[in-house]
Design brief:
The protein is built from no helices and 26 strands. By secondary structure, it is mainly beta. The N terminus is likely disordered.
Amino acid sequence: MNLVLILIEWSGKLCEMFFIKRRSQILVSLLAISICAGQANADGPTITVFRGLTFGMSLGGTNNTVAPTDPNAAAFEIQVPGLTFNQYAYGDIQVAIILPYSLTSGSNSLSVSYGANSGARNTTNSFSGCTYFNPSSGYYSALTADTPFTMYVWLGGTAQPGGSWQPVGDYTGVINVSVTVRVDNPSQNYTVQQSIPVDASVIQGLSMTISGSLDFGRLLTDETPNPLNAQTNPNAPLITVAGTGASQITVTYNATTSLTDGHGHSLTFSPGLCGSNLPTSQTTSTPVGSNAKATLSGSRGYTGFYYFWLGGGLNFIPQNQAPGDYSGTFTLTVTYLTN
């Protein structure tokens, strides 16, 4: 007589064993019956940071507000896998957001404030249908068994330089986000934390001075005057720009300027601009076209400079051009590069 033992995987707490006698064999079967205990099965929550909060550059005394829908707002995602627990258990999620109310640059500080609409959240990565909230109040919600939780969050605020006395510099801080998932039967907590950078820059206002003027002297009709080279003309006007050191600027100007004699007659001037961040580098300065970028000398926290020399040429002067004194104004616009 053969004895055959068949073992079925044991995965519970209660079992039955019974014997079946058939022909000359005895079959022993072990039947496993599982009884599910009220356990929660969960992975911890995750925080994925897409970008930090950037206030950009502000003059002292000029507030800079970033809305949560702004590209410079902080953005992150919270995910919680579906929790498996019995019908008597309860799960929830608590999101705590610790905000910096001041940013620092060395020993200097810059105030930051937040309001009822400084935060936005949504279940999709879209502002359509999002809910605005005060980030200082955080977020709380119940969790449903076996249902994954996803939330996208955007945070803004207002940087508040105190006034003209606000020291120039790059200010930094962090937003600390803590996510806790809790199940009460049995009691389990899952917590994850993440830091999100915050930065702002306080700059001094740009200023511009000019010395000299561009003079073509006496000109004859029926010819094109020789252009005045900005690099080699010793009398080229010098334009000095001052601002926060090491900052980038953008330069714009018109391709032509009209010179008039006050009696309805005109000539066309085409500027040629060269520049350097050294005042002694006229001959080695580089051509600067409209919409070009340049970097002020010096370092952050100190005044920096950039120097332009102006040259250019006049168009062909026809034989019937009215004689007279022609003059005009060349306009150069310089702005900080903020991105």
